[in-house]
């Protein structure tokens, strides 16, 4: 959201209220994220917190409805596909507030993923749909979405990446862990399908240990994953066998590690995109992806649900070759802002304001 928030800032006739639901929240990481992205403190912090899918969505729905009733906005902009995205869009639609969805049209067609439910329903509720990859438009047309509501703006996540790439590269975060540039594999895993199933998680641990026998492995451990590893006694096993387990990293540090990685192993959608833009080889431990452009135009390879494949991933030599993906050019936030300005200016012009 940061590039769009930045592009909307400072316009005399537009008041912007930034709401942080607190669905994903760690006090230190939240402050560092705001600092790294150059964002001001949010106008509203809702403190939704973690919890079961329905519980978390319900808390976000109640909290977002209260904000909307107090602020009475002319438009709600929701980003991504988390529970808070759907909750905010549903609260707005029920109150008759138009909804714009940033990152619309992504589809994995895997209904076991909570994110798939969130993104499909949010798109159905939205008046403006901002797509960021070529396949998103056809996905929406196939679902009967009016094409006049769909706007191809590009990938705002890549806006942030391009803006902060020089400072992340200068940071050279890999040096802290005594590894060489281009000489390690970066790992990030957090999806329930991988970390909440004991046998799957143990197989992942075994594969990471085997991979660490070939190349240094840096593993910033998501809090959810950390809890599962600690409960099963696997965290110490990883450390004892050469896997460097790290605390969650701030944005610039993680981007710095991505830039210098020989390869990345992940189950994150955003990391699939970032590595493709950077040209870093990516291996995704999932049977599908809602971001097929990272395979057709990028550097991503699906490993399915087969952790043993992690141990045998190809480790390419030579410098990375960034992918040329349409509209991933660092200006997506500006294009989305232009559409919003036009949409909001219409009613003002009709009233002569």
Total domains, how many? 2
User: What is the mean pLDDT?
Assistant: 94
CATH architecture of the largest domain, by name, is 3-Layer(aba) Sandwich
Count of DSSP E strands? Answer: 12
Rg is 21 Å
Strand order of the largest sheet: 9-8-7-10-11-12
CATH class of the largest domain: Alpha Beta
Task: Describe this protein with a few key phrases.
alpha/beta; Rossmann fold; four-stranded parallel sheet; 12 strands; 12% strand
Can you give a write-up of this model?
With 353 residues, this protein is of the alpha/beta class. It has 2 domains: 2-154 and 328-350, Rossmann fold (3-Layer(aba) Sandwich), CATH 3.40.50; 160-312, Rossmann fold (3-Layer(aba) Sandwich), CATH 3.40.50. The chain contains 15 helices and 12 strands. The protein has helices spanning 2-8, 27-36, 53-71, 83-94, 114-125, 136-142, 156-171, 192-195, 198-212, 223-231, 234-240, 251-260, 269-278, 293-296, 332-350; strands spanning 19-20, 44-45, 76-79, 99-104, 128-131, 150-152, 185-188, 217-220, 243-246, 263-266, 281-284, 300-302. Helix 13 links the parallel strand 10 (263-266) and strand 11. Helix 4 (83-94) packs parallel to helix 5 (114-125).
């Amino acid at each position: 959201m940061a590039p769009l928030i930045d592009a909307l800032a400072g316009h005399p006739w537009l008041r912007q209220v930034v709401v942080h639901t607190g669905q994903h929240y760690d006090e230190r990481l939240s402050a560092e994220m705001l600092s790294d992205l150059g964002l001001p403190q949010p106008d509203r912090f809702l403190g939704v917190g973690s919890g079961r899918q329905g519980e978390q969505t319900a808390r976000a729905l109640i909290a977002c409805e209260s904000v909307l009733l107090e602020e009475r906005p002319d438009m709600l902009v929701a980003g991504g596909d988390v529970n808070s995205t759907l909750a905010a869009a549903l609260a707005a639609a029920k109150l008759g507030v138009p909804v714009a969805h940033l990152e619309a049209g992504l589809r994995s067609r895997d209904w076991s993923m909570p994110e798939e439910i969130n993104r499909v329903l949010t798109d159905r509720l939205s008046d403006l749909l901002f797509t960021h990859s070529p396949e998103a438009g056809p996905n929406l047309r196939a679902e009967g979405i009016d094409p006049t509501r769909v706007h191809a703006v590009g990938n705002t996540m890549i806006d942030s990446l391009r803006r902060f790439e020089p400072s992340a590269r200068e940071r050279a975060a890999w040096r802290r862990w005594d590894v060489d540039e281009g000489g390690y594999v970066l790992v990030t895993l957090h999806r329930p399908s991988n970390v909440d199933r004991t046998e799957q998680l143990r197989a992942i641990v075994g594969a990471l240990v085997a991979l660490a026998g070939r190349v240094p492995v840096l593993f910033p451990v998501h809090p959810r994953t950390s809890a599962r590893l600690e409960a099963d006694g696997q965290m110490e096993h990883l450390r004892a066998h050469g896997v460097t387990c790290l605390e969650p990293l701030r944005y610039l540090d993680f981007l710095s590690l991505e830039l210098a990685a020989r390869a990345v192993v992940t189950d994150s959608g955003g990391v699939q995109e970032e590595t493709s833009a950077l040209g870093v080889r990516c291996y995704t431990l999932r049977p599908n992806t809602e971001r097929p452009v990272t395979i057709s135009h990028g550097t991503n390879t699906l490993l399915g649900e087969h952790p043993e494949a992690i141990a045998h991933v190809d480790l390419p030599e030579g410098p990375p070759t960034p992918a040329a993906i349409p509209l991933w050019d660092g200006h997506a936030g500006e294009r989305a802002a232009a559409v919003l300005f036009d949409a909001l200016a219409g009613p003002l012009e009709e009233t002569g304001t």
